[in-house]
Amino acid sequence: MAGTQRYLRYIVFALICLILLFFISSSSTVSSANWPGYANPPSPQTGGDAKTPGTTPNTGGLPPAVKEGDRMNATFVTLARNSDIWEIAKSIRQVEDRFNRKFNYDWVFLNDDDFNDEFKKVTSALVSGKTKYGKIPKEHWSFPDFIDQEKAAKVREEMKEKKIIYGDSISYRHMCRYESGFFFRHPLMLDYEWYWRVEPSVELYCDINYDTFKFMADNKKKYSFTLSLYEYVETIPTLWDAVKNFTATFPQHISPGNSMKFLSDDDGKSYNHCHFWSNFEIGNLNWLRSDAYIDYFTSLDHAGGFFYERWGDAPVHSIAAALMLKKEEIHFFNDIAYYHVPFTHCPTGEQYRLDHKCHCNPKDNFDWNGYSCTSRYYELNNIPKPEGYEKEQ
């Protein structure tokens, strides 16, 4: 009986071995997976074999790492702190992927404190051009001696009670004042003629295949924008009074053929609160460093509104550009698709969006919203609105 059981175990073991050998030999005849982009890819002419769906070939190849032609004396500039590292990393990646990997422009980072090694290491690894790191002088990031500290503190408390955005923030006020009157004077910025301002956590939705700095220079532009809107009235109650005081004192700085109609509906008697959103700007640094702009900023600074109210750099820059530049020197980049919370500029024009690999939803486009001032810019310059804008209103 024991011998019979042992014999049956041998037979079962032999059968199991035969089954395993069968499966091993069968699997060796299966061809390896044919992954596109690796060995033996589908032919671009046929789009693969009859059993797989076709794919669109990249017949033109990838864009070159550096575009041919002379580059401008230009840089990106970002005001950031060490704690912003991962938010600015996102922005850099957006700018590099959509634009700068083709041109390799430099990047200047400014901070009211010293940048740490991690910030420098991460950002320098992401940027295709050179990176430079600068500390803001204390006198450019502090209360001027002519500001009444008690009055300024009382204003902040009142704005906090009224729940005005950034109304009680000291650092936000220093930032607005610095962006309004000092960033272009930093020693690192003195090496450049053109700047592109980039904020943390912005997004670029479309490929940019031309040199925007060269476009500005070739077309005699000095300031540009992608979004425009109305400013919070509560933050700038006396700004226009300060501007009128400046224009009365320095009439020589006001340009003929300016964009006053963008700012005012009554020939300058009052301000309609329209401004270009300055978290995106491509502009000319020599204009900002001119006597006209320095006189303008100095006049506004001594009026005290950066601290006694909450003047933003956006209306300050916008009013200066609208009054000191000819209207044709200001450019709207419809083709630069841009997002900064909470607003989106998605280019109007379906074919453009397709051609430039845009991933923005045109329904999110802010341009033709009732709170946008972009229509006013088109009307001022007698520019036909882009085809299809009606569908986005």
From TrEMBL:
Catalytic residue list: E281
Region named Disordered: 40-68
Organism domain of life: Eukaryota
Low complexity: compositionally biased ranges: 52-64
GO biological process: cell wall mannoprotein biosynthetic process; protein N-linked glycosylation; protein O-linked glycosylation
InterPro entries named among the record's database cross-references: Glyco_trans_15 (IPR002685), Nucleotide-diphossugar_trans (IPR029044)
Signal peptide range: 1-32
One Gene Ontology cellular component: membrane
Keyword Transferase: yes
Keywords: Glycosyltransferase, Signal, Transferase
Entry-linked Pfam families: Glyco_transf_15 (PF01793)
Transmembrane segments: none
Record GO terms (molecular function): alpha-1,2-mannosyltransferase activity
Family of this protein: Belongs to the glycosyltransferase 15 family.
Name of the protein: Nucleotide-diphospho-sugar transferase
Source organism of this protein record: Clohesyomyces aquaticus
